[in-house]
Design brief:
The chain has about 300 residues and is an alpha/beta fold. It contains 9 helices and 12 strands. The strands form 4 sheets. Strands 3-8-2-9-12 form a 5-stranded parallel beta sheet, with helices on one face. The protein has a 3-stranded mixed beta sheet with strand order 1-10-11. Strands 4-5 form a two-stranded antiparallel ribbon. β6 and β7 form a beta hairpin. The longest helix is centred in the N-terminal third of the chain and has 27 residues, at about 10-35.
Length: about 300
């Protein structure tokens, strides 16, 4: 459980609160990087977690630390192995499968991994989310001591775990693992957000910013996202060598001015109206924290931009 507050005495106190939360998360990343650096004979790292956990930023920060230590780490986004969108429509024109193993061109992924560790130069794919198609390729080859860092929600699925197991792979799992409790001495009612709820709020804001998606659309796909997580992601937590918690105690205060107008867009007759009302109720007493206080390299920039 992490705690936020509605009792800031000044804007400077808000800034300090943000920096304290960021420092705690940075320390956990430093510890993870040091563990990786000191793992003998390592050739691969798989970084995974449920949607909106901060995998991309975490991967970049860990790679930066590995590089600073003299290791040559090459990041590979598993998203680049998606099949063309047209072949993955669950409901034509509306719902796309981005979650299951069937969404990936797994045979080509296996071919690339085998080729790289056989000393070959491999044509690595690039995926364009705008067009929903493979947009091109780039050449990649490995030198002695290089470490591949695979990042994506499928990185610890059974099929990929079996594939990676032959290459001394270390597994990193990141999630919004803590619930967030609102401390308010003037409010006798409990107000808290669990980890899944925080991820949904992150996703609603991100989808609206990046894809102009309505909250209703994000709610719609969230049901299948959660179903897949419970089936293919969370059961693999125990297999992780490192676990990271990206919950930031200040994030409810930060997201308030972004999420409130989006919750107001949820129709009165929507099945998600009660959730929207509950979020608005819990956010109501919180003092907003200005996004300018958030460092440019914060994991939360994945959602706010």
């Amino acid at each position: 459980m992490k705690h936020t507050t509605n009792n800031f005495s000044s804007e400077q106190q808000k800034r300090e609160f943000v920096l304290q939360c960021e420092h705690e998360f940075e320390q956990s990343l430093d510890d993870a990087a040091n563990f990786i650096i000191n793992t003998k004979g390592l050739s691969m790292v798989a970084i995974t977690g449920p949607t909106c956990s901060g995998k991309t930023t975490t991967s970049k920060k860990i790679i930066k630390e590995l590089t600073a230590s003299g290791l040559n780490a090459r990041v590979i986004s598993i998203d680049d192995f998606f099949k063309d969108r047209a072949s993955r429509l669950s409901v034509p024109g509306v719902k796309v499968d981005y979650d299951s193993i069937d969404a990936l061109d797994f045979p080509y992924l296996a071919e690339c991994v085998s080729g790289l560790y056989s000393g070959k130069t491999v044509k690595m794919p690039l995926y364009d989310f705008v067009t929903g198609t493979r947009s091109g390729y780039y050449d990649l080859s490995l030198k002695k001591g290089d470490i591949l860092v695979f990042e994506g929600i499928q990185a610890m699925y059974r099929e990929l775990t079996e594939l990676f197991s032959a290459y001394n792979c270390l597994k990193v799992f990141i999630s919004v693992a803590s619930s967030l409790f609102v401390d308010d001495e003037n409010d006798c009612h409990d107000r808290f957000f669990d980890g899944n709820e925080l991820r949904l709020l992150r996703r609603i804001v991100r989808d609206h910013r990046e894809r102009n998606a309505s909250p209703e659309f994000t709610f719609y796909i969230w049901e299948s996202v959660r179903e897949n997580e419970e089936k293919n992601i969370f059961p693999n937590i125990d297999a992780a060598d490192i676990r990271l918690d990206s919950t930031l105690a200040y994030e409810a205060n930060l997201i308030k001015p972004y999420i409130e107008p989006l919750m107001d867009l949820v129709p009165a007759d929507s099945s998600h109206r009660s959730f929207a009302d509950a979020v608005l109720y819990k956010l109501a007493p919180l003092e907003p924290i200005d996004a300018s206080y958030v460092p440019a390299n914060s994991v939360y920039r994945e959602f706010l931009g």
